[in-house]
Specification:
Helices cover about 55% and strands about 0% of the residues. By secondary structure, the chain is mainly α. It has a single domain, classed as Cytochrome Bc1 Complex, Chain D, domain 2 (Orthogonal Bundle).
């Protein structure tokens, strides 16, 4: 139990260190098959608001914004936003409604795609 607590503490400390560059370099490559599945799901369920290239639209923000570095919005935050919706808090697009019809595994694949794209393309400054 102590080892698990120590590991969690180390992860939390490392997640909080550094700026955008540190977060960007901490993104690990994702499973290619999972990211391909995630891209298909993203395009079908997220692109209308967040853009086919993840750079946002007039209806939703860019997923490449530094607001979405893992240390600020962990992967679980994406799952919660999809399942429950999200109140407007960083942007002026209004509240994000829940997205129906996506399983936890589906959202995990979408997150893998988003994280891989962030890893490859980097992050944009906030505010844009």
């Amino acid at each position: 139990m102590r080892v698990l607590a120590a590991a969690v503490l180390v992860v939390l400390i490392l997640a909080g260190c550094g700026g955008t560059g540190a977060a960007e370099s901490s993104l690990t490559p994702q499973n290619e098959e999972l990211t391909e599945q995630g891209e298909t799901l993203y395009q079908a369920n997220c692109a209308r608001c967040h853009g086919t290239d993840l750079r946002g639209t007039s209806q939703g923000p860019s997923m490449l914004s530094e607001v979405y570095v893992p240390g600020h919005h962990a992967d679980a935050a994406f799952l919660i936003a999809v399942q429950r919706g999200s109140a407007q808090h960083h942007w002026r697009f209004g509240d994000m409604p829940a997205v129906e019809g996506l399983s936890t595994d589906d959202v995990g694949a979408i997150v893998a795609f988003v994280r891989e794209t962030q890893r490859i393309q980097g992050f944009e400054p906030y505010p844009p």
